């Protein structure tokens, strides 16, 4: 293995000599690159291969390419790219080929390979990469579309794109997205040919010898795809999607009309068809002979006329197809138009009137859904139509008696109207609703009572709620009860509430943290009370929440009446009580396996991208081999001091540390800071690392 690695290092020498000769890197930097490259080569040549080692290698080379580009721009030197950059690019491609052959199922790795080839002008290689990837991942339509799009847009080869789509349809004959993109590609091809022909004709060139079939120029290939897809994929949604694509191309008017006529003929009973036909009225322009509106008022009248035509289509639709789905489309259209901003008071009033009429008609036919009643009531309240809102909410509650949302809306209307029957209505709601869904109503009752009733009445509401609501829902009520007690009557009341609830499980950690915070806000903060609260909290959550133990220890250390001598005992109690990962991460000294840390760091490096060079400091754990994330950074020496440019003991010709930053009159560390615009972020998953404080660092005591 050593001979292979030595040969690969020697293959680097011509490019490194060029880098030094033209002044992009100093001799010390070249030596540091060789040292780091040797380490990376050993990692990818060993018998037990790990993906993160290949990721490290690729990221290192990408960082090197980025730095070479920046230094070229700085000194204005643009020659010798074949000997330097191309050599590095070919080496990275070889590493990608090995990695993708070893881990064929990793789509993110393949996509990283594709992005690298696109960025570093290796497009000749990209067709082979797509072919190899699709041979393995032929079950993913998105990859076929990506490959065809690249052939069409980057290589300008519509024939290759067409062949890819045809192959993809053999694997996925019922994939709507493939048909849509294939349809779009043929229309784009026809438009490109039409523009080419027009340019040749403008230049008065003979286009007779060129192949411009009239059928293709008219989009006949797209029509064939459309006809074939209709026989396989049913439904108005797919039909409308093809029509939307065809409308992007002005030359395909005949095709658009054909698709539109088929849509009306084949999907008359689909609400989506009627919705599309109605909205299409907004796009119809005035006739050429008609006078175009010029003033704002005239434009508002024209918009109003178009919206009325849309509503006329919707009125016909709800008569032909009187379903909830059809009324939903109609009402959504009215709400969308009403939400559009306009300075015309006339237009706003017309839109509001149409919306109210649509809601009223659907309500009379009992075809309004629950959420639409909510939209209607909110619209009425927003315009201060309290009386109408009360009528609507009463009718909605009658239809949806088991809906918490409807009861909430009814209570909101009564509260806004300052009705004296609010409390009675709360009681009535609890009779009709199941106890497990009543939590929002209990919270609303307590909040209303706090502002409208006495403290005794509000406390009675909270006590009823605690008895009525069971399980995890009661946790929220207890927290609100404690907050209200402190807010309304101070710390003594809050402590009394805490005492009354301390045996009423379940709890949340926030419940205990609130009472601890209330105690700390007092002028005479008692350590005995804090100990009591912490002990109660640890009894419930001490086995899973390491932060509670740490806060308890800090309290003993920092409080004027704390007892630091108790910290050791608390620490050992925590170590015995915490379970699994909580003990290891939260309290135990920071020891992690070397391979696990290498995996995290490697994934982060590749995720940092071709345009970003990491600047994180390495984490040195016991038994962990330290690696610098910058490409020309050296490892920790025997004395434990990180020397950036000190390559090895006895190495001559290396600049001292204080002179390293003066190389090229630039700050090497600043060049290794991360850029933005990272092309790899969307392709590689970032590994999340939980970083916990260690009590061993906070508490250096022996027990």
Automatic annotation (TrEMBL):
<comment type="similarity">
    <text>Belongs to the UTP6 family.</text>
</comment>
<comment type="function">
    <text>Part of the small subunit (SSU) processome, first precursor of the small eukaryotic ribosomal subunit. During the assembly of the SSU processome in the nucleolus, many ribosome biogenesis factors, an RNA chaperone and ribosomal proteins associate with the nascent pre-rRNA and work in concert to generate RNA folding, modifications, rearrangements and cleavage as well as targeted degradation of pre-ribosomal RNA by the RNA exosome. Involved in nucleolar processing of pre-18S ribosomal RNA.</text>
</comment>
<dbReference type="Pfam" id="PF08640">
    <property type="entry name" value="U3_assoc_6"/>
</dbReference>
<keyword id="KW-0698">rRNA processing</keyword>
<dbReference type="InterPro" id="IPR029289">
    <property type="entry name" value="COPR5"/>
</dbReference>
<dbReference type="InterPro" id="IPR055347">
    <property type="entry name" value="UTP6_N"/>
</dbReference>
<keyword id="KW-0539">Nucleus</keyword>
<protein>
    <recommendedName>
        <fullName>U3 small nucleolar RNA-associated protein 6 homolog</fullName>
    </recommendedName>
</protein>
<dbReference type="Pfam" id="PF15340">
    <property type="entry name" value="COPR5"/>
</dbReference>
<dbReference type="GO" id="GO:0005694">
    <property type="term" value="C:chromosome"/>
</dbReference>
<dbReference type="InterPro" id="IPR011990">
    <property type="entry name" value="TPR-like_helical_dom_sf"/>
</dbReference>
<dbReference type="GO" id="GO:0000462">
    <property type="term" value="P:maturation of SSU-rRNA from tricistronic rRNA transcript (SSU-rRNA, 5.8S rRNA, LSU-rRNA)"/>
</dbReference>
<feature type="domain" description="U3 small nucleolar RNA-associated protein 6 N-terminal">
    <location>
        <begin position="9"/>
        <end position="91"/>
    </location>
</feature>
<dbReference type="Pfam" id="PF24892">
    <property type="entry name" value="UTP6_C"/>
</dbReference>
<feature type="region of interest" description="Disordered">
    <location>
        <begin position="586"/>
        <end position="641"/>
    </location>
</feature>
<feature type="compositionally biased region" description="Polar residues">
    <location>
        <begin position="609"/>
        <end position="618"/>
    </location>
</feature>
<feature type="compositionally biased region" description="Acidic residues">
    <location>
        <begin position="629"/>
        <end position="640"/>
    </location>
</feature>
<comment type="subunit">
    <text>Part of the small subunit (SSU) processome, composed of more than 70 proteins and the RNA chaperone small nucleolar RNA (snoRNA) U3.</text>
</comment>
<dbReference type="GO" id="GO:0032040">
    <property type="term" value="C:small-subunit processome"/>
</dbReference>
<dbReference type="InterPro" id="IPR013949">
    <property type="entry name" value="Utp6"/>
</dbReference>
<dbReference type="InterPro" id="IPR003107">
    <property type="entry name" value="HAT"/>
</dbReference>
<feature type="domain" description="U3 small nucleolar RNA-associated protein 6 homolog C-terminal">
    <location>
        <begin position="308"/>
        <end position="578"/>
    </location>
</feature>
<keyword id="KW-0677">Repeat</keyword>
<feature type="compositionally biased region" description="Basic and acidic residues">
    <location>
        <begin position="594"/>
        <end position="604"/>
    </location>
</feature>
<dbReference type="GO" id="GO:0034388">
    <property type="term" value="C:Pwp2p-containing subcomplex of 90S preribosome"/>
</dbReference>
<dbReference type="GO" id="GO:0042393">
    <property type="term" value="F:histone binding"/>
</dbReference>
<dbReference type="InterPro" id="IPR056907">
    <property type="entry name" value="UTP6_C"/>
</dbReference>
<dbReference type="GO" id="GO:0030515">
    <property type="term" value="F:snoRNA binding"/>
</dbReference>
